[in-house]
Design brief:
- The chain is of the alpha+beta class and 292 residues long.
- The chain folds into two domains: 2-175, Jelly Rolls, CATH 2.60.120; 178-291, Orthogonal Bundle (Arc Repressor Mutant, subunit A), CATH 1.10.10.60.
- It is 42% helix and 18% strand.
- It has helices at residues 17-20, 95-98, 125-142, 149-165, 179-193, 209-216, 220-231, 235-253, 258-264, 270-281, 285-291; strands at 2-3, 22-27, 43-56, 59-71, 77-82, 87-93, 120-122, 174-176.
- Strands 1, 2, 3, 4, 5, 6, 7 and 8 form an eight-stranded antiparallel β-sheet that branches.
- The radius of gyration is 21 Å and the shape is globular.
- Residues 208-291 form the HTH araC/xylS-type domain.
- InterPro entries: Homeodomain-like_sf, HTH-like, HTH_AraC.
- It comes from Hymenobacter endophyticus.
């Protein structure tokens, strides 16, 4: 039996993750109520055993056995589970936590986390045994009151990273999807991850087709052609529609002033936001708020 698009690491209570910067847990173990993310905000290293297809960025990867998976907040991924649920371990962490004493390049530039890589590694029994031991040490250390436990867990994470860098990624298992379809899926996923806007100070980091193309490491013309081919609408139209939808929600459900909403949606000046909103809705933001 096939279960589509299941993340085996999703069911974990990580309410304290933002405070500690990390969370280690056993996949499939009872760890408390699930926490639903509006977007994936944290880097993750997972050691999993099972049979599945992993859809990571532009790749579909067939795996059966034990594998190591590195994911970051900027690249969409999902699982199609085949058979029994996964078992294993996972560690979530912020970049600030893992690089607290390291001034080297950003994790986004690491071969294990950058766009275009294949950070999935099929493991031998010996490799799986060794790395699962590291995860068990992290899990045990997490529950102690040892003064330097953060430093120790940081070292364990770096050890797993260095072990992976010595391996060859699972390139032989990769099946590439239709180019236009996979690029469009990446774009739409990244667009959706920008929302909801949860604070008037949270300005959108990606505002234009060029911004999205830069994040996906492709030429903007390539992105525009792919999105138009698959959806029939331009990249700019998708962005505008989503921003208008979020603007309506904020005007209706918050008491933020119009200028604050505009800033949160990427408009430096309230007049720019007013003109944009009126162009796409026929109404000013204030008139829309008064009418709802």
């Amino acid at each position: 039996m096939t279960t589509p698009y299941v993340d085996p690491c999703a069911d974990t209570n990580i309410n304290d993750l933002k405070l500690t910067g990390f969370k280690v847990y056993e996949v499939g173990a009872p760890v408390g109520p699930a926490l639903v993310f509006r977007r994936r905000d944290f880097y993750k290293v997972s050691l999993l055993t099972g049979r599945c297809t992993i859809y990571y960025a532009d790749k579909a990867i067939e795996l059966d056995g034990t594998y190591l998976l590195f994911t970051n907040p900027h690249i969409p991924y999902s699982f199609e589970n085949h058979g029994e649920p996964h078992s294993g371990y996972a560690c979530l962490f912020t970049e600030e936590f893992v690089k607290a004493t390291d001034r080297s390049e950003s994790l986004q530039q690491s071969p294990l986390f950058k766009i275009g890589g294949t950070p999935i590694f099929q493991l031998s029994e010996e490799q799986a045994s060794y790395i699962s031991g590291i995860f068990r040490k992290m899990l045990a250390e997490q529950g102690t009151d040892y003064l330097f436990r953060h430093d120790l867990i940081r070292t364990y994470i770096q050890l797993v990273i260095h072990e992976a860098l010595r391996m060859q990624p699972a390139e032989n298992f990769v099946k590439h999807q239709n180019a236009a379809a996979r690029i469009t899926a990446l774009f739409l996923e990244l667009l959706e991850r920008l929302f909801p806007v949860e604070s008037p100070e949270q300005a959108l980091p990606l505002k234009t087709a060029q911004d999205f193309a830069n994040r996906l490491s492709i030429h903007v013309n390539h992105l525009n052609r792919a999105v138009k081919e698959v959806t029939g609408k331009s990249t700019t139209a998708h962005i505008a529609e989503r921003v208008v939808g979020e603007a309506k929600a904020l005007l209706h459900h918050t008491d933020w002033d119009v200028a604050a909403i505009g800033y949160g949606l990427g408009f430096e000046y309230a007049s720019y936001f007013n003109n944009f909103f009126k162009k796409h809705t026929g109404s000013t933001p204030l008139a829309f708020r008064r009418a709802v």
